[in-house]
Amino acid sequence: MWVLTSILLLALxxxxxxxxxxxxxxxxxxxxxxxLVIMLIADEFNPLIVGSVFAVGLVFLAIYPHTQNQxxxxxxxxxxxxxxxxxxxxxxxxxxxxxxxxFSIEDTDEIEQFILPVGVSxxxxxxxxxxxxTLGAIAEASIAVSSGVWEIVAYQPQISKQxxxxxxxxxxxxxxxxxxxxxxxxxxxxxxxxxLWMIQLHYSLVKVMNNAILxxxxxxxxxxxxxxxxVVFVTNYYIxxxxxxxxxxxx
Length: 251
Prior knowledge:
This protein is mainly alpha-helical. The chain contains 10 helices and no strands. It is globular.
């Protein structure tokens, strides 16, 4: 692990220079934040409160080091936070009606040696898992759209609102396609062994569709895709509003 970590740090520095060190430190910061979340939840703090507070921190860590432009930072951070609030509400509803929280029969070998009556809320933990699972893709799409649109504004200061919105939507469509492929490949790669398990043990369709692990994975995938789509539109309209406010100040 240390060898791969060192290679990652070296590669970042070679490719993007000092900025690579900032990116690496943001990754380390994200890892520390996740460890704190796990420890606080294990100490029986409310998972939803802990997850929501630290999700904000992860948003800043995911966006702030990647650009020096204050306008891009503001657009990406605000848009991501708005969408995460919506995703949080959707995750609460999804977990409530999907009953996908906790462990399934496939986890028996791993958990049989532990005491199961633990003092934590598995539905709330599942909501936090869904929130964190979508955060990376949403933040990535937001900063990509924000960077592209503000670059257009820099080169064409007199561009109309309609033209800028159309250009932003075109950038967003490309990022949605890229994010969709990333999420799908991650889904299939992460749960390939589970699929082989189900095939080899001849799971029925009903049993497959009611499997807690698979349902949870599908929720992560769907919320991630919805989050990316939403953040593209939110980022574009927020930049339009942000530009109008800047024009008023200039006058």
